[in-house]
Specification:
- By secondary structure, this protein is α+β, with helices and mostly antiparallel strands.
- The protein has helices at 2-16, 92-106, 173-190, 195-204, 239-242; strands at 57-68, 76-87, 115-126, 130-141, 148-157, 209-212, 216-222, 232-238.
- It has a five-stranded mixed β-sheet, with helices on both faces. A three-stranded antiparallel β-sheet has the order 6-7-8.
- The protein is flat and about 55 Å long.
- The N and C termini lie far apart (55 Å).
């Protein structure tokens, strides 16, 4: 009986979003603070026919599913996924690849069987060359005693349709090593106040993922996301500061 009540409360937290794993440290710049907003206005989510072919934009799409199941303490399972979809003037093959990559990410942690699932994302940066989004995902499959969760980011080149791998954006090996050393030292310094977190950071020696916001690049250390220690931390660099490390033509240097 106690276990059923416990799972019921956890499910309520999961579906309401109160069990958010994307803490304040994941909040980046506002993608709409520039001179131009790239979020689509009134569009048909199904086919985008109301969009001009000369307009590049994105729209957040929400997919909600669910069904009855006696194995759930609540009698049913629910799934809610919210993610951006690209419309407008972009190479059709690239657009298809980008949108498929986002959908694949949104489904990556879904249960093979029935289960509660919540995927939400935030677009930190979007222009003709680059899409950067951070996400949080929570899931509870039928055989699990409690929910699981994770956070991350996806940065995609809208010219090629490929993910922007940070390793390939540095000027040379020396610049790469200088940057990794600097960000690791800053990360450990940020976690010094908590000896437990600091120990984990020293063992990992760096960050887990990065994403781009309006005028910054954020590097996130998710050293212990499965406890209440609050060890997630971040280091931010301005685009100007990153110019001494990255290739001059890197799409990450857009501002």
């Amino acid at each position: 009986m106690i276990k059923s009540i416990y799972r019921f409360v956890l499910l309520l937290l999961l579906t309401s979003g109160l069990l958010a794993c994307k803490q304040d440290s994941l909040e980046g710049g506002d993608s709409h603070n520039g001179e131009r907003s790239f979020e689509c206005g009134s569009v048909s989510v199904e086919d985008g026919k109301s969009l001009s072919e000369s307009e590049l934009c994105f729209r957040l799409v929400s997919i909600e599913e669910g069904g009855d199941d006696e194995g759930s303490p609540m009698g049913y399972w629910e799934s809610l996924k919210t993610y951006p979809k690209i419309y407008g003037a972009i190479d059709p093959a690239v657009k298809l690849n980008v949108n498929n990559s986002i959908v694949a990410l949104a489904n990556r942690y879904a249960c093979d069987e029935l289960g509660d699932y919540s995927f939400s994302s935030d677009v930190g940066y979007f222009d003709e060359n680059l899409l950067s989004l951070s996400y949080e995902v929570m899931w509870m499959c039928s055989a699990m005693p409690s929910p699981d969760s994770t956070v991350g980011a996806l940065v995609i080149n809208l010219i090629t349709g490929a993910p922007v791998i940070l390793e390939g954006e540095f000027m040379d090996a020396s610049s790469r090593e200088m940057f990794y050393s600097d960000v690791a030292n800053k990360m450990k310094g940020n976690l010094e106040g908590e000896s437990y977190c600091s120990g984990l950071a020293n063992n990992k020696g760096g960050f887990d993922f990065y994403y781009k916001a309006k005028n910054t690049l954020a590097f996130i250390s998710n050293v212990d996301r499965h406890s209440d220690s609050g060890c997630i931390d971040r280091v931010e660099y301005t685009v100007t500061a990153m110019r001494k490390y990255l290739n001059s033509g890197s799409v990450l240097l857009s501002d």
